[in-house]
Design brief:
alpha/beta; 8-stranded mixed β-sheet; 8 strands
Length: 321
């Protein structure tokens, strides 16, 4: 068996924080059943003391829950920007409240309406089901823009980890189908490539970790099944897309100390090569999901602040209706 390649050091502050929690040594069907109940935090503590209106709806056929968070305000004459959020969890766990603190910061900062989609999970759902769910929820959001007080010219699609990959897939789908218009996409440490063959993938193989190469293989095989070695849709594994032209302005970030580093850098590089606009940040010492797990760390605060500052520029540049 080949030795694991040398890997970049983890940020010392993050390393100390991570040392205080037990890590899952592997991910399989039995472990997934055990960890799924803990893959999302309750939403109520995040909403406490904030002027936020919450609405829960379910789109029929098949049922697709959406949570809608809006600034509590009496003046709704000016349509708000919208953050359409896709949660992380390796496509096998999590729900619409996972990592929701990230877009709620944008609600506070920009007065944005946040819509979070509860897409179906693998292995119960497979193939394009997950990205189809996300696209269907996005179409509903745009179709109900007036009702939600949302400016359809300022729809931002965003997600982290598996949700980042689904965000990229939804954006490709919207481009190819000609609808809806997306102002920007935010891909936070996105899960983009089922092939799992990059240098960073090999570096983070073996042993316990936040998200290892072996965990990644389990997540992808849960979604793809036997197709993992054959014909895979680029809407599911966006790194397969031959054509990255015509995409909205894109933000991509990752850590140097994570499985997804190289596929994320490659995706940004290919957007530039296609003549598109992307901003890429690779945070030194960041492991997978570092800024969601430990937002208090200095590198996490820098990552979140930089992402929000980029979004402010994008929203300032978007046309007002």
């Amino acid at each position: 068996m080949a030795a694991t390649p040398a890997r970049p050091d983890t940020d010392p502050e993050l390393d100390a924080l991570l040392a205080e929690v037990p890590l899952v040594p592997e991910l399989n069907a039995e472990v997934l059943a055990q960890v799924r109940p803990y893959s999302s935090m309750p939403i109520e503590p995040l909403l406490e003391g904030r002027a936020i209106d919450r609405r829960e709806i379910t789109i029929a056929g098949p049922d697709l829950p959406l949570s809608i968070f809006s600034p509590a305000r009496t003046d709704r004459a000016t349509p708000a920007p919208c953050i359409y959020w896709m949660h992380g969890g390796g496509m096998v766990m999590g729900d619409r409240f996972s990592q929701i603190d990230i877009p709620l910061e944008w609600l506070d900062r920009f007065g944005a309406v946040v819509v979070s989609v509860d897409y179906r999970l693998a292995p119960e759902a497979t193939g394009t089901t997950l990205v189809d769910d996300c696209y269907r929820g996005l179409l509903w959001t745009v179709e109900h823009a007036d009702e939600l007080g949302v400016d359809p010219d300022r729809i931002i699609v965003a997600g982290t980890s598996a949700g980042g990959g689904l965000t990229a897939g939804v954006t490709l789908m919207a481009r190819d189908r000609g609808t809806p218009a997306i102002a920007a996409q935010v891909l936070i440490c996105p899960m983009l490539d089922h092939r799992n063959v990059t240098t960073s993938s090999r570096q983070y193989s073996g042993g316990p970790g936040v998200w290892t190469r072996e965990m990644n293989e389990f997540g992808w095989r849960s979604v793809l099944g036997d197709r993992a070695d054959g014909d895979v849709s680029s809407y599911v594994s966006p790194a397969l897309a031959d054509d990255l032209t015509g995409l909205p302005t894109t933000y991509i970030d990752a850590g140097t100390a994570e499985v997804f580093r190289d596929e994320d850098v490659d995706y940004a590089t290919r957007i530039w090569a296609a003549g598109g606009q992307a901003e890429l940040h690779v945070w030194a010492g960041g492991f997978h999901g570092f800024d969601a797990l430990y937002p208090q760390a200095r590198v996490s605060a820098a990552a979140r602040r930089t992402r929000t500052d980029w979004l402010a520029r994008v929203l300032d540049a978007a046309p007002d209706r």
